[in-house]
Amino acid sequence: MEEAEVKKTEQGSGILKAAWLIALVTILSKLVGFLRDVVTAKYYGASIVSDAYFYAYQIPSFAIILLGGVGGPFHSATVAVFTKLIPDLDQKPSEFVNRLYNTFLVLSVFFFSMLGLLCYIFSREIMGIIISNGTPELISLAALHLKIMTPVFIVGGIVGIYYGLLITYKKFMLPNFSPMVMSIVIIAAVCLTKSDNYGLVLAWATTAGAICQFLLQFPQIRKIGFRFKPNLNFRNNAELKSICELLIPAVFSSTIGQLHIYVDMFFTSSLREGAWTALGYANRIFQFPVGILVTAFLVPLFPLFTRLVAQKDMDGIKSYFNKGVGLLFFVAIPIIIGILVLGLDCVRLVFERGAFTYSDSLMVFDALLYLSVSIIPYVFRDSITRVYYAFDDSKTPFLIAASSIILKFLFNYIFITKLGWQIGGITLSTSLVTLYNAVALGLLISKKVRMAYKDLFVNLLKMSFVGVLTLIVCYFSAKCVSNLAIIIRMILITAEMTAVYLGLSYIFKVNYIGEILSRILSKVKKV
């Protein structure tokens, strides 16, 4: 029993260490992504050209980010199956594992190639349906962007499998580092292009960036020991069947998630020019801290959940889930406070230059404001989904996501068409749908494991109370220093928010505060 406890402690320490390292790399990647958005906003503003690119990009991004990205179905299916087939990570993969890898790779390339070909042939029709409320000029320009970016589809599945294999072998850094390659390529392309030729640069640079992601990961896959030997061993392949049983519902689930975006595109195309661009920038700001949190904790936790399920250690699953999600909640609260108090300042500081105006900043902040309330259900939903995947169940998340598409359309219709709200109505509906998904997933997991939510949510109530007090203090402080420069004001309020939130958390005995403070102090002492 003592040995088991020691092992769990070592695993927990390893996860936290991995989380810190992944967080640092993810922060760097997000910063480069932010720089990409700053450059794009400077040269394009919130215009018809940027709208056309971002509308079109939602189609190939489905492959490279949603399906093939970290946490996507191809990554998740690879981790779930290959983790069980590779007991010793110090050894080269066996011939059997290599054959399975190649079979899966061939199948993926075929699937994504067909998807890309269809998008190339029917690009005009696809964009015409999705943004039917847009002008003919916008639809034609978006279709042209989509044609240029269709090669991204082929890269998507390969990159997803590579992510999964690297994470299975505990190579956490490269999968979280490689997305910044696309950002670097886009930044270079936009900055080096003459001012009268900006039209299609973003589309060409996106395609080149996706290919570079693949080229960056390929040498590491070979170094691990995987070799490309195509085969068509599809029949009577139990392991491939296991992958497909997890993968296919997860792909459909991601497709449903993408349908949410298409519903948003349909309604946003009826709003003012630049609305879709503004919504994209709001999501970038939202994903910067939230994406770091979710990626840092869930990338190392997912393989652990899978192993715990294989060992039938239900107590271990509950323990690691509650600790991981509790820490995510603890950090999420001040992020919400920061958006509410400093959101507009942040948007102006990051984007407001060149072609990007104060009016554009207000539009982005409007979207960001309503999106901020979804952070808590967002991190819970993504965390509990990994538990489903660890149980080889992607059907339940799919069914819940499928049912939520009706809610998404209904909320958008009410807020945009009936009430006449602008971009904030889109993000408010997103937050309500995220809450629905989180609640449904949290309840239905009891069919597999009875999660101990009581302590988790009692602690969340404490955090929320502390957060409200911190919000009140920071709101009035922001009013007092409103005449200062934006950057100085942001630094002062952020410092105050951190001190007040940590101090009140300590006073009200919020869980995790002791561990977090000790880690901060240890880092400070090392410096």
Number of helices: 20
Number of distinct beta strands: 0
The separation of the N and C termini measures 38 Å
Helix content: over 70%
**What radius of gyration results from the CA coordinates?**
23 Å
Mean pLDDT: 82
Structural class: mainly alpha
Low-confidence stretches: 1-13
* Strand portion: under 5%
The biggest sheet, with number of strands, parallel, antiparallel or mixed sense and barrel status, is: none
What's the SSE pattern? HHHHHHHHHHHHHHHHHHHH
Q: Sum up the overall morphology in one term.
A: globular
SSE layout and pairing:
Layout: H1 2-44, H2 48-67, H3 73-85, H4 95-121, H5 123-130, H6 136-149, H7 151-168, H8 173-177, H9 179-192, H10 201-224, H11 238-268, H12 275-310, H13 314-351, H14 358-371, H15 375-390, H16 395-418, H17 423-444, H18 454-480, H19 486-507, H20 513-526
Q: Care to describe what's here?
A:
The chain has helices spanning 2-44, 48-67, 73-85, 95-121, 123-130, 136-149, 151-168, 173-177, 179-192, 201-224, 238-268, 275-310, 314-351, 358-371, 375-390, 395-418, 423-444, 454-480, 486-507, 513-526. It is mostly helical. It has a domain at 48-252. 82% of the residues lie in helices and 0% in strands.
